[in-house]
């Protein structure tokens, strides 16, 4: 109907009516595979606009902001402008009587019943519903909530100017007014523009398994369930621009007006026969399951929320097995969108909501939705910049009600430039009440007000009392404090009741503030604490007294900053304090200091001080590299610091004199006696709060370039008002800001600001924002032996310390004009020399074979000796010089070289290799002369063990084409690549294949294959072309992994990630090949830079049963049942979860005292020469009454044939989750042949319940 250049002007109506004996699901317009749909109705523009002034009840006309070409007799919706549109429905639909000559005024046949607001800050929308092509459902099926539906299963469908009415089917999956269903790549082919959905039984515009669809200038009104709908979580690059959705109704609720659930009492919504997708319980105008889409210039009215960004860990529906993590995808664009009249259907609702999860229940069939899922601890996870609210009262800036529990306190919102709060300088916004208190804020006296200070009725966490908000003294930090057995039986996972003290553990307060000036927050049983680092100090006051043992887990303390931690103890108490690091560093034992100054001045945080009343610690993050966690995120000058994902904690054991612990009062709470955990003490918070720290010390010993505005008082001294005391306003005084202004500051402030090159360093162009300066991070004593960086340098430990991030300045390996030359003469006899070693790939057929010797006199170019390598069997893979990332194996630079025969020496060089410009995070790499990489540069019919197969057996039905390796035009980078030109296709993608080398698939190892590809389409051909990347069994042709994708005219990397050998084939040798299937289009295909690399082997223990993820349990049997350990265990135990949906729990009810009688055994894997294997697992105890709160376990790597232990690590686990690691185990150097081994965790020497979760085995080169 019509065409893009000749749009249909006449009216056409199509009614979807039921036929006798036919299911209503068949009332459909469907396009499958090669089908084409074109509907182009008349253009009415704009499809929606806004009021230019308020329209009052009783008015028959409205004034709009844009001229419209709408017609008399058409339907127009005027949405509500009140908050709760489901409670007091003030949405209206009217018929146009006339349009003014200039198109700016619309007169209706009947007056408006309600007032619709059109003020300076927001104007109600005016929406055209009518189009001249009408698709409508029959009234006969209205009672079934069913109408017709449009389902596009092909790549070509174009809809313009089409209206749907009474369409969709609320009780049948996949029946929506407009539904692009598994259409694949449609970029430049299909679109939905200027259409209308009115009175829909289910949804509006659905993008399902579809990529690159344009959905623009559409309208939707009176809709059941989420409207603009990105379905399964894999859909990407769709453009959703300039659309409107209003009066959107949630499903599955008897009451659509009352708020149901909250952060403190979240509920799970299950899929039912009448609620097909449980997230429709929280229906939104725009429903987004994958952020990599472009959502711009839209308007939302009503719904549970206007825009819902779900946090999907995995896709659902048809793509549930795709190896994609939707929530980790980058944001395509979210810009210039508006929303109103929503956010009231649950306790913490919002017009734009990021959160919630849709996943499968344990039966793996039923979908479940949770509108709130606690994904993050309350660390510093939010930084805002250049965001300004206009005409909004201060009280409405942030709705952040106090709710007790560490997961919900919102002390993490940093307005990094003061634009959001209007302060003009970095400001931390926090909730404030007598129960969750960051202090009453500053007292703005008359002098400060006269100078322009603004004192608001809402509270910010301030670093001083002079209306000068957050400064370099206080980036945010986050820790978790815990006491063994403290909350036994209270159910750690349940939220604490609001504003009651049944489960309060105590208080956390800043130093120096007491009484009415207090600055404290309640410490609940979910003991997360977030606040300012630096000299403000954190005093933790446990209500029940002094803990005999407690741990402080460091989650987020920015590198170079610290938290001064304090808590109370009776006089005479002595301490044993251990700081546990990641497996990269040995643990540290803290030394007793003689004064608080010793603690403050310890750069490594390895000193404690007890003054007879208060214990002081300086908490730091040792920040060893590679950083085990999420590194800092930086965007547009705003920064969110990194956060730990591995255990770094301080364990504090206190030996309290018995006489100092009175028998009364008994430390009890909720009927439980905690005498074993606490020594009771008298006194309130104010009796123990330490005085403010006034002595200067280096609070920020590793600074970065920061924008620091001067204090208001300093501005006043130099004649600037508080309103102008911001860096943009002071740009004309840059020279003074780094000289006379700095000199007029306090000594401590001047010292800190000088580290960032003076006040307003970014505005004044003195440094690049957030970039670290070259200064030493002092290594902890377990690594340094107590020596300083200057003392370590002459000892030749540079290349041991620098990769871990220590002593960078002393060792001159950062910010130098010239790189340090690292020479290697290979003079040392042995299997390695000067940090170099040899690696030969063993997982390909044929594998290279040979022998080598460092320190061979025969191989000397200069000096005494060199490296001699005798290669007796080659793999057919070209040799290259490479610079490769040592963590993710990404190739940064490569140069092919030829080694001449004869006696002539030749120098092989890889020059000008650099870190990728787009990579902000630290990158550690190594140069390699390597032989397992495919650049396709060798000309011929095969290259680098890769070949091309085209099914051109002669039948007219078969594909035809030509190909050539070593084609210069096909190079992504480097000299050449592979070109495949297809001249006839069958439409079946596997009729053309790029096949990789044959390799042995090892049990428990994950393989990722990637290759760069693009199209060079002929003028008459369209892009993209469908493709799949698969892992085949090279003998049986069984497909072990498949990833569907497409190839476009732009170079992109195709990957089959984390493919594995099936668990059922663990005992047999399995050989496989990666292949790229392509060829559904007559085109020229380019391929370059193929890589195959192993990945981390992870196990979440979520599958219930006797085994899970290749792990099993072994219990020793001696034949005497009464003498053996007695144990029950289960995988998939939700109570044993560290993260995810389940874990492993083992309860030992009779122990033998021998730890190896019960073992958790990992998957069998082949140990390869030159590889290092690290095993890690999260563990804790869950003891019953009277059982130990700490017990020893052993991790070992054991040969599965001869049972020899190749590596062993013993440690204690406690009631707090901690990560146990057996690092860098290897196949013995002298042991030839094939070696198969297993990691084992030996437990059970004590009666207890053991929990384990999130096991991982990583492989790296030695």
From TrEMBL:
Belongs to the comF family. InterPro entries: CEMIP_beta-hel_dom, G8_domain, G8_domain-comF-like, Galactose-bd-like_sf. This is G8 domain-containing protein. Keywords: Glycoprotein. Pfam families: CEMIP_beta-hel. Signal peptide: none annotated. It comes from the Eukaryota.
